Amino acid sequence: MNPSDAIPGQVALITGASRGIGLAIARRLGKMGARVSICARDQANLEEAVSGLRAEGSDVLATAADVTREDQISTLVRNTRQNLGPIDILVNNAGIGIFGPFLQQSEADWDAVINTNLKSVFLMSRAVAPEMIQRKSGQIINIGSLAGKNTFANGAIYCASKWGLLGLTGCMAEDLRGHGIRVSAICPGSVHTEFSPHAGKDASKMLQPDDVAHAVATLVTQSPGSFISEVLMRPTQKP
Predict the structure, then answer these.
(1) Per-residue pLDDT tens over the stretch 61-82
(2) Of 55, 129, 203, 208, whose CB neighbour count within 10 A is largest?
(3) Which member of 31, 61, 121, 158 is catalytic?
């Protein structure tokens, strides 16, 4: 690894990191020397993820948490600070999707998607930003989607959450940049994970979790005088 690609000793907190994109990001940052805190709702998946990360030499802490709940976020952030140190990098990755014609969606569907994909980013960022402001450094990366740029049939609630996420990200960036904190969004197209079946798509031509992890690595190793506000990601070939 090139020394310029290392972030030794920095503390990175990644939500929704027991599998898929979140786990790939945790693995990449761990290999770059970061002390990694991961969370997810499923304890069994978390334990499996921790075993794999530690086997690769990462210094990792796992906390089962629902990031739509402020009390559990407080516990997660406190555990991270007490066990690893002040949080340098926050990656808001947790997300869900419920798809179908909007007329057939319920209020519970709306609440589940908006709370997980949008409210959680607001709550997590609000929990870590004050300490970053005190230290005059830090990075918040929100994992969005090209669905925050483009509409499609059966994607009403999901698109609403991701369009909202980009608006929130831009405003957070303006609020925090004067304090030395960089806020960015990464917007991938379809990624080959268990997130959704992607029926009819060639998985070998889709984006992979490691592609998104590479984008995160690029953002956290930028020179301090600038920041990339938004990354749009597409596969080289349409799947």
Answers:
(1) 999 999 999 999 999 999 999 9
(2) 129
(3) 158
Alpha-carbon gap, residue 98 to 88, rounded angstroms: 32
Q: Please, what is the Cα angle at 88 between 87 and 89, to 5 degrees? A: 100
Identify which of 141, 155, 133, 128 has the alpha carbon closest to the alpha carbon of residue 17. 141
> What pLDDT digit, counting tens, does each position of 146-203 carry?
999 999 999 999 999 999 999 999 999 999 999 999 999 999 999 988 765 566 678 8
| Cβ-contact 216, 91 below 8 angstroms | yes
How far is residue 17's CA from residue 14's CA, in Å, rounded to a whole number? 6
Residue 178 is among the residues annotated as catalytic for this protein:
no
Most distant pair of Cα atoms in the chain: their distance: 53
* Pair of tokens at residue 209: 């979790």
* Domain positions in the chain: 7-232
Phi (first) and psi of residue 61, to 5 degrees: -125, 135
pTM for the model stands at: 0.95
Q: Does domain 7-232 have CATH number 2.115.10.20?
A: no
Type and span of the H or E element at 115: none
Res 2 pLDDT > 80: no
